[in-house]
Design brief:
Blueprint: E1 2-6, H1 12-22, E2 26-30, H2 41-46, E3 54-57, E4 60-63, H3 65-75, H4 90-112, H5 124-148, H6 159-169, H7 182-192, H8 195-204
Parallel strand pairs: 1-2
Antiparallel strand pairs: 1-3, 3-4
The protein binds glutathione.
Glutathione (GSH) is lined by residues 10-11, 38, 50-53, 64-65, 101, 105, 109, 113.
Length: 214
């Protein structure tokens, strides 16, 4: 039995959806951001960074969404979240999992948390630069999908598509939402139609985003 410490619509979304993909039993443990519970002593014992997600695996807390994606794919090969070791597309899957987290994830972290840099907000020039970097990653992925889509690994769905769709959703209030890139939008249509995504959104009370019409 897993336990997922989560907050609706945050980096825990992908882990929540992946748990549903596996069919494994899990409980949802809300972390109340309104009350800053992520910085409380009880939660910091599970996740010293004071962030979600944290997943309790065999009784021990594990942090970092990319690590959890890799771990769940490894522990549940039957769910086919990833190409198995030795498969020619395994390296691509590893690449995308890390790329999405270290590029999009890190850029979004900076975008949403100026406090990490000791700022209340960004000067316009810095916000514009961050926005351009996020858009450049979406453009890079769009070009990849144009050549090798419709999923990140071609015809084969993987956990990386769920991870990407979560990051796409986070752009919904940005000047250029990710759904304005047509191949990204088409990928999001496929992913948001999955039972795991719809059940995750229902459980987290997320009804404020859908891909653009095709
Ligand atoms: N690198 C981490 C980033 C996690 C992260 O930034 N989580 C945010 C929500 S999306 C959070 O917990 N924010 C609360 C806070 O920093 O106080 C991961 O991917 O797991």
């Amino acid at each position: 039995m897993y336990a997922l410490y989560y907050s609706p619509g945050t980096a825990s979304m992908v882990i929540h959806a992946l748990l549903r993909e596996t069919g494994a039993p899990f409980t949802l443990q809300p972390v109340d951001f309104e009350r800053k519970a992520q910085h409380g002593a009880d939660y910091l014992r599970l996740n010293p960074a004071g962030m979600v997600p944290t997943l309790i695996v065999d009784g021990a807390p594990v942090q970092e969404s990319a690590a959890l994606i890799l771990l769940l794919a490894e522990r549940h090969p039957e769910a086919q979240l990833a190409p198995p070791p030795g498969d020619p597309s395994r390296a691509d899957w590893l690449k995308w999992t890390v790329h999405l987290s270290s590029h999009l994830g890190a850029l979004y972290r900076t975008w949403f948390y100026p406090g990490d840099l000791g700022l209340d907000d960004y000067p316009d020039a810095m916000r514009d630069a961050l926005r351009a970097r996020i858009e450049a990653v979406f453009e890079y992925i769009e070009q990849h999908l144009a050549a090798h889509g419709p999923y990140l690994l071609g015809e084969r769905f993987s956990s990386a598509d769920l991870q990407l769709t979560m990051y796409m959703r986070w752009s919904r209030k940005m000047p250029r939402p990710a759904t304005t890139w047509p191949r990204l939008n088409a990928l999001a249509h496929r992913v948001t139609a999955r039972a795991s995504w719809t059940a995750m959104c229902e459980a987290e009370g997320l009804a404020d985003w859908a891909p653009a019409p095709l």
